[in-house]
Amino acid sequence: MIKNILFDMGNVVIRFDRGLIMDHAGVTDPADRALLLREVFLSLEWARMDRGTVTDEEAVEIVCRRIPERLHDAARKIITFWDRPIVEIPGVYELIEELKENGYRIYLLSNASTRQPEYWQRVPAAKFFDGTLVSAFHKLIKPMPEIYELMLKTFSLKAEECFFIDDSAYNVDAASLCGIQGAVFFEDMTRLRGELRAAGVWVKA
């Protein structure tokens, strides 16, 4: 019987759109966008921020060493202000509210840097969550099995009583190897509600 619903954050609860983030940073030139995509979003430093082995400020410093000076301000904005503004995924707030009202406990399991608590409080649905586990604080990231095991241990959860929602199939598959059911979220609320109902979760169609 499912009692706990675990949510990923980016592209599940809130939007993480690289193109939109670069728009907000004022980057319009296609070549500059391609460079920043490679040197910031797809960089080792971004992964290390999630892993908690570099801070956001350290990542900015490292990235700026290898990109043109004219893009330094944009790189800083992308790394330290990507969350402005917070953009919710349509329908997820209502789903989380409904799950909470129906007696389910709600948790966050996210790959994110140590800055996450600064902006999480601005996420409207955050008020429904019973607990959060953010990768950087534990030097672990999804899909490492250790992070799922830590999640269960930290909040005294039973794997068979949890359902995990993530936008990455790799992360959902890894959770399943730890005994946690789950679904890959494709921003299709009808499909997600159907998958929850199939798992025995009480939500409207």
Output the structural class.
alpha/beta
If strands are numbered along the chain, what order do they take across the biggest sheet? 3-2-1-4-5
Question: Which whole number gives the mean pLDDT?
Answer: 97
Uncertain parts: none
- Tell me about the largest β-sheet: 5 strands, parallel
Order of helical and strand elements:
EHHHHHHEHEHEHEH
Question: How does the SSE layout of this entry go?
Answer:
Blueprint: E1 4-7, H1 18-24, H2 30-41, H3 44-51, H4 56-64, H5 72-81, H6 92-101, E2 105-110, H7 116-120, E3 131-134, H8 145-154, E4 162-166, H9 169-177, E5 181-184, H10 189-198
Parallel strand pairs: 1-2, 1-4, 2-3, 4-5
Word description of this protein:
With 205 residues, this protein is an alpha/beta fold. The chain has two domains: 4-15 and 87-198, HAD superfamily/HAD-like (Rossmann fold, 3-Layer(aba) Sandwich); 18-81, no CATH class. It contains ten helices and five strands. It has helices at residues 18-24, 30-41, 44-51, 56-64, 72-81, 92-101, 116-120, 145-154, 169-177, 189-198; strands at 4-7, 105-110, 131-134, 162-166, 181-184. Strands 3-2-1-4-5 form a five-stranded parallel beta sheet, sandwiched between helices. Helix 3 runs antiparallel to helix 4 (56-64) and helix 4 (56-64) packs antiparallel against helix 5. The longest helix has 12 residues, at 30-41. The two termini are 19 Å apart.
